[in-house]
Each structure stands twice: as C-alpha cells, then as structure tokens.
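Entry 14. Structure prediction run on the chain below.
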Amino acid sequence: GAGGMSGAGGAGSDLFGFDGEPGHMNGKPTPVEAEVDLSLEEAYHGTERLVHVDGKRLEVQVPKGVETGSRIRLKGKGGGSGDNARDLHLVTKVRPHAVFTRTGADLTREVPVTLKEALLGAQVPVGTLKGRVLLTLPPSTQNGRTFRLSGQGMPKLRGSGYGDLYVKVRVVLPQSLEEPARQAAERFLDLVDQPDPRAAS
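Output returned:
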C-alpha cells in the first residue's frame, strides 16, 4: 500500500523534518538559494549585491574568485530567527567576457601585433584585469605563439594567490604595400633563407 502515509502525503512529506515542522530537512531549516549574476571584472575584484530574501532586501558580499556554479554559504541570512534561522546560499553565474576566456583560475586572451614587432621583437602593452603590463616579444615571434604571464589570472576562491594569463600572439600583416615598399620587401625576403614550411608535411 501507501506505507502508512496520510495527511500531506506524497512528495510533500519530504519537506517535514524529524521535528515535524515544514521547511526543515533532517531537523534543520532548509537553506534559501539566490542566484547572483556577475561580470568577469566583478568576479575578479569581488562585489556587493542586493538580494531579496524572505520579503526583505539584503546586501551581500560576493568574494573575489567565484565562477559559474560557485556556492557561497551565508549562515543565518536566509530569514527566520533563533533555531529557525535559515542559511542563504548564493549561487554565482559569471557572464562570458569579450576578451578573456576562463579556465578555473587561468585566463587566456589574444593580442594582435604588427609584422615589425613579431620580426624584430618589441615590448607590447597587454591589458589584464589588474591593469596594463608589458609583454616582451623576442625577435622572430611566430604567429600563434603563447606566452604565460604568471599571477595575472583570476584570484583563487579557496586558498591564496592568482592563476596565470596566457597571451596568444596574432601577427597582423600590412593590408597593402605601395610599390617602393613592395620592392623593399622583395629585396628583404630574397635575403631571408626560409625553408619551405610545407616540405615536412
């Protein structure tokens, strides 16, 4: 049969804890969940949010380093009082960023460089979530080469320190060459002994 269930019955009975009060699980008040939507910059620095809980507006602190799916437990902030005070669980969602791709505490971004910078080497400014840093490109930097900038990634939510930033170089060729430049490029390239890169494939 129904196993002796009566009254509320069915799935609703699962909400009743051992003390028989609704809204309890295993004798403890069930926590309240609130989803918090963040930008990557807010996840980097930490931020404050207003959430509506139990008919009230509550200002909460979101720590730095959260990612999509992080759960922040705020003890007793979900409404009620005394033994019936409920915890508030913040569930964070970090929006995609136009420049940075995130993997855990590490970030990846692309940086365009000129042909001159790639060939001769240069110091190239790179924007990070912390500010601008200078990336030193060695001469003859290949298109697609990735450089690791230690500690320039996201703060770690648990523990201390920061992840890394991986910078992928994208070499941008000149759009068009005027005749003197084309002739100079031809003379220069005749001097460069570059083997056929397709020969090995």
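The chain is about 10% helix and 35% strand.
Filed with the rest of this week's runs.
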